[in-house]
Amino acid sequence: MKRIIYFILVCCLVSSCGMMSTVTRGSQYAKMYEEKPITLLVMPPINNSTNVEAKDLLYTSISRPLIEAGYYVFSPLLAMDILKAESAYDAELFFESSLEAFNNYFGADAVVFSVIDKWAKKGLGIETKIRYVIKSAYTNEILFDRSCDLYLDLSVNSASSYGLLGALVDLAASAINTAVTDHIVAARKANYFILGDIPRGQYNPDHMLDKEVSAGQKDIVARVK
After folding, report:
1. The pLDDT of residue 172 is above 50
2. Residue 127 or residue 169, greater confidence
3. Best exposed site among 10, 38, 134, 173 by fewest CB in 10 Å?
């Protein structure tokens, strides 16, 4: 009886491992490989947090990981000026609408939306929750959808051996570190966590060669220093 139970457990383990290994970028982001977007337009973030500065802070940090992944990204500063002039600064107005105008006006293949649900100091760190959705400017279909609930730990550990005094010094240093560290550091780290799994674009040597790379979880919870 014990052997039968053991055999069943082994089969379940092998089966589950096999299922996990089948989740690749090619299967999780199939639409990205089908459409092969080259040019991306990054929309100003949709800010659902209580931090009024979060929208502008995040916007300046989105382009870099996308460029490094091999995509052509329109200059965020230039795009923002045009979007404001065309009364298109509020991305939430276009999230469920046709994106054809962005293809006609900018020549964008896809539009990048970001949603900030949380961005605040918590304890000795910064807590963020950001979702990214990339939608086709041709079909409006979702090509990429991923989120990250990230806590940026800004505590300082001096590894001192002064007992209580050392702990108080570390606590004071951590408080100062939290106060002066720009919130954008947390946004940058969240961006790399989320967009690090994106299929590589045309300007990356791994373009169309990374289909079998294991895909990360679609919703990430992380704590980083």
Report:
1. no
2. 127
3. 10
User: Per residue in 19-51, pLDDT tens?
Assistant: 444 799 999 999 999 999 999 999 999 999 998
pTM score, whole prediction = 0.79
Res 156: pLDDT: 60
Ordered by where they begin, the domains of the chain are 24-224 (3.40.50.10610)
DSSP string, the chain: -HHHHHHHHHHHHHHHHHHHHT-BHHHHTHHHHHH---EEEEPPPEE-SS-TTHHHHHHTTSHHHHHHTT-EE--HHHHHHHHHHTT---GGGTTTS--HHHHHHH--SEEEEEEEEEEEEETTEEEEEEEEEEEETTT--EEEEEEEEEEEE---------HHHHHHHHHHHHHHHHHHS-THHHHHHHHHHHHTTSPP-TTSTTTTT-TTSBPPPSEEEEEE-
